[in-house]
Design a protein that fits this description.
11 strands, 19 helices, binds adenosine-5'-diphosphate, alpha/beta, zinc
């Protein structure tokens, strides 16, 4: 009843404390030592005498830092759940969106509510919205007042108030140092994205979620399959893993099964990457796409510098309506954006594969516009090779980059051939680019001709009714049996 009254008094503040919906540490996984550190906060509520007697330092404010979706809110709720205390949560941006002067008084109300409900945890999400470094030309009076009020409330309460403030941010770097001074948010806990083991733990928590009738949800995943899933979800946050399992469970439900399978998860992952499925195309169009994507996947798996194929699909998707060949992500390359000449040359072959295959299968008169976008990509790659990164052997280009950055409405673009270069140089570079393109087109045609048998098997498997997709392993198996890599 007290809760309900409080709820009425404070709009915007969420209060949670129902036994059924109680979140505990068991619901949070893959976050390393954070739980151990937060155990102390739980102990403060459960065994306050111990703190008082020993004169140990009482936790007042705990700051959870880390990227979005890593379980910071969940953790704060779990601390309240473990300690069975009231939980008042508020997003700090709600303070600043209010009228001048209101933010500070809301903070006052929030703390006085917490004191009446004590023992309690106040959780302020996105604290950076009020806690940015103060002052300066960009100063914001309203925000400063709100922050000052928050700080003075925290300074004001004592061990007896039995209220602990938890806050979360993914912008630790912009926080006002006043917030992290002793006696305020002096416990800082970093919650990062889960590692390999962590992802397995989180997947398990969500796969084995409690159903409405109190049973745990059944699933058929073996340890190896959980490992495989964890491997495939590198860079996923806890929230992304939770939503993946949720889509898989929905898919299982749609086909009338209760237990979630590995295939459900794979399918959900594929969907996540490519966007939801759309209406299938006519047989004609599907065949075109199968030739284009089949050839791309084939060429990708024949080339040593290209990452292994994960999946090739001609099922039209929200993000890729024309099908797609997905290769393993090379995280380092993605991060550094550093490409070698060999890699770019092979990349050039992969983007030209679709066109070459169309020519082989349908004949020159019947090639279509379907490859237009890839041809533009091919043009970009040769420009990079010859003009931007000076990777060609053409002596007229030599060690010169023939591009120059220029500003276009805040975006930096590369202009090819700025004025200062001679016509000879431009001409030479152009000739070199055309030569590279033609050479690559010839090479990929020859490669596909030699591997025609493998191409035909891939295309026919892709167009078999209901298939539409091949896994990387399936493509490699076909290449092993029918291919001719040399
Ligand atoms: P944050 O506050 O860090 O942005 P949330 O706590 O709101 O993230 O996470 C959103 C949801 O994602 C949670 O309710 C939970 O279902 C899931 N989730 C995120 N991290 C974890 C985790 N470490 N363990 C289990 N589930 C998690």
């Amino acid at each position: 009843v007290r809760m309900r009254q409080a709820q009425r008094n404070m709009k915007g503040v969420k209060l949670q404390y129902t036994e059924a919906g109680r979140i505990t540490f068991d619901d949070v996984a893959g976050i390393g030592d954070a739980k151990v550190e937060l155990m102390e906060v739980v102990d403060f509520f459960l065994k306050p005498e111990r703190f008082r007697r020993s004169g140990a330092k009482i936790p007042k404010g705990v700051l959870l830092c880390g990227p979005p979706g890593t379980g910071k809110t969940l953790l704060a709720r779990a601390v309240a759940g473990e300690a069975r205390v009231a939980f008042l949560s508020l997003n700090a941006s709600e303070f600043v969106e209010m009228f001048v002067g209101v933010g500070a008084s809301r903070v006052r109300d929030l703390f006085s509510q917490a004191r009446t409900l004590a023992p309690a945890i106040i959780f302020v999400d996105e604290i950076d919205a009020v806690g940015r470094v103060r002052g300066g030309a960009m100063g914001n009076d309203e925000r400063d007042q709100t922050l000052n009020q928050l700080l003075s409330e925290m300074d004001g309460f004592s061990a007896r108030s039995a209220v602990i403030v938890m806050a979360a941010t993914n912008r630790r770097d912009v926080l006002d140092p006043a917030l992290t001074r002793p006696g305020r948010f002096d416990r800082i806990i970093y919650v990062g994205k889960p590692d390999f083991e962590g992802r397995i733990e989180i997947l398990k928590v969500h796969l084995e979620k409690r159903l409405e009738d109190g049973r745990r949800r059944p699933h058929t995943l073996t340890e190896e399959q959980l490992h495989a899933m964890s491997f495939e979800t590198r860079e996923f946050s806890g929230a992304m893993l939770a939503s993946l399992v949720n889509s898989a469970a929905l898919a299982a439900g749609r086909s009338g099964r209760e237990a979630v399978t590995f295939d459900d998860l794979e399918q959900a992952l594929e969907e996540e990457r490519l966007g939801p499925r759309r209406e299938p195309y006519s047989d004609d169009r599907s065949m075109r796409l199968a030739v284009q994507e089949g050839a791309t996947a084939l060429v990708c798996s024949l080339l040593p510098a290209i990452e292994p194929v994960v999946l090739v699909t001609i099922v039209p998707r929200e993000k890729y309506p024309l099908g797609q060949t997905v290769c393993k992500v090379n995280e380092q390359r993605e991060r550094t954006r550093m490409f070698t000449r060999r890699y770019l040359e092979e990349q050039l072959l992969t983007v030209l594969a679709g066109r070459a295959a169309e020519e082989l299968v349908y004949g020159l008169d019947e090639v279509s516009t379907i490859n237009q976008r890839r041809l533009i990509m091919a043009r970009r790659i040769v420009t990079k090779l010859v003009a931007a990164a000076a990777m060609s052997d053409a002596p007229v280009v030599g060690p010169r980059t023939l591009t120059q950055p220029y500003d276009m409405g805040g975006r930096t673009l590369l202009q090819v051939f700025p004025r200062r270069y001679t016509n000879e140089m431009q001409y030479g570079a152009n000739v070199e680019m055309e030569r590279l393109l033609n050479e690559a087109a010839g090479n990929v045609r020859a490669l596909l001709q030699r591997n025609r048998a493998a191409l035909d098997v891939i295309v026919s498997t892709l167009t078999v009714k209901g298939a539409g997709s091949l896994s990387g392993d399936e493509v490699r198996a076909i290449v092993r049996e029918h291919g001719c890599p040399e």
